[in-house]
Write a structure and sequence with these properties.
Elements: E1 20-24, H1 29-41, E2 48-53, H2 70-81, E3 85-90, H3 93-98, E4 108-112, E5 115-119, H4 143-158, E6 167-171, H5 180-183, E7 188-190, E8 199-203, H6 211-220, H7 227-231, H8 246-255, H9 257-270, H10 280-286, H11 294-300
Parallel strand pairs: 1-2, 1-6, 2-3, 6-8
Antiparallel strand pairs: 3-4, 4-5, 7-8
The chain binds iron/sulfur cluster (SF4).
Iron/sulfur cluster binds at residues 55, 65, 133, 144-145, 148, 237-238, 241-243, 327.
């Protein structure tokens, strides 16, 4: 097969030079800013697709990390903007990986234009987790980001023939302002799935943006932010993100006490707490719950999303410019 030649460099990055632009779309403000920025640049919509990596899978009664509304919010956003959206996830999601004992990591499932595909989960050495991901920039101990997002994305690229012989740009929304680790990321670099038969670059177009610039682009397009921001969260991570602040844990305890019960039970079973500074009850006791409007709670805790994505009169949500707790 003919090799796909290198045609961009990190210094002279040209997002128009790609056949396909995949935007890693969490539903958080930085991923929304990426979509809006790519559209403002004028990249044709028919080259763009959104990929959302689900953290949880299925209704097994096990702990679900993410906001109940996130799936429906990202669906509503993609529909409102008229951009295709593909979901992908690890079979069994966070809960199965958390409870994995002397077993292989589960297969990856990913939607494609021609249907659902499955890959992986058959090779490797059985191993055990039974421990929450740790609050670290190191992705081997903070395994949720790598196992449930980064690796899922790579599997979905590497296992789709439609990227063979093509130039693909993977857009992600990390910003330097968010953490020291993120400040060191390159704005554009070859992606690990790039090889002789497919070219893949990762581009972080909002890497140097301030939070103000992110809200400004959302205001220009009148986009209603994810429900978590309206409750007071300044970053839209999992609802029970391991990086949650004490006040976020106190807020979760108010609106999703069943999740706290599950986390407490796991901490006791594993003999290892989610946080290094004490158990979940200690974190909750140190925090002050956000002043959450019951209607905003209803929207965030619902698995459906029925609000318009475009606001008639745009408003900044309560969580904007709030405490910067979230993945590093
Ligand atoms: S948002 Fe937090 S808990 Fe969820 S995958 Fe990222 S680091 Fe892990």
């Amino acid at each position: 097969m003919e090799q796909v030649t290198l045609f961009v460099t990190s210094d002279a990055f040209d997002p128009f030079a790609f056949d396909k632009v995949i935007i890693g779309f969490s539903g958080g403000k930085d991923s929304v800013a990426c979509v809006l920025h790519v559209l403002e640049l004028g990249i044709p919509k028919d080259r763009i697709e959104l990929w959302h990596h689900e953290i949880d899978d299925g209704d097994t009664g096990q702990l679900k990390m993410d906001w109940p509304c996130t799936h429906a919010y990202v669906r509503a956003f993609a529909d409102a903007l008229g951009i295709p959206l593909y979901f992908s996830w690890r079979e069994g999601g966070f809960a199965r990986e958390l409870l994995r004992e002397n077993a292989l990591t589960a297969p990856t499932l990913f939607e494609t234009p021609t249907g659902l595909m499955k890959a992986g989960g058959i090779r490797g050495t059985p191993s055990t987790r039974r421990k929450f991901p740790q609050q670290s920039a190191n992705l081997s101990t903070r395994w949720c980001s790598s196992s449930l997002k980064i690796d899922i994305c790579s599997m979905a690229i590497a296992n789709q023939d439609r990227f063979t012989g093509k130039r693909t740009c993977l857009v992600t929304g990390e910003r330097a302002e968010e953490s020291t680790a993120r400040s060191k990321y390159a704005e554009a670099e070859p992606h690990k799935t790039s090889n002789g038969k497919r070219m893949v670059w990762q581009w972080r177009p909002v890497h140097k943006w301030s939070e103000k610039e992110v809200w400004a682009i959302m205001e220009r397009h009148r986009i209603r932010a994810h429900p978590a921001y309206w409750l007071g969260w300044s970053r839209c991570s999992c609802q029970t993100c391991i990086f949650g602040s004490p006040s976020q844990w106190a807020s979760v305890a108010q609106i999703a006490p069943h999740k706290i019960i599950q986390i407490r039970k796991h901490e006791q079973e594993f003999g290892v707490t989610l946080r290094r500074d004490g158990d979940i009850d200690k974190a909750i006791a140190r925090g002050t719950p956000y002043a959450m409007d019951p209607e905003h709670v209803r929207v965030a805790m619902s698995e459906t999303y029925d609000l318009p994505i475009f606001m008639e009169e745009w408003a900044l949500p309560a969580g904007a410019y709030g405490e910067a707790a979230g993945p590093t």
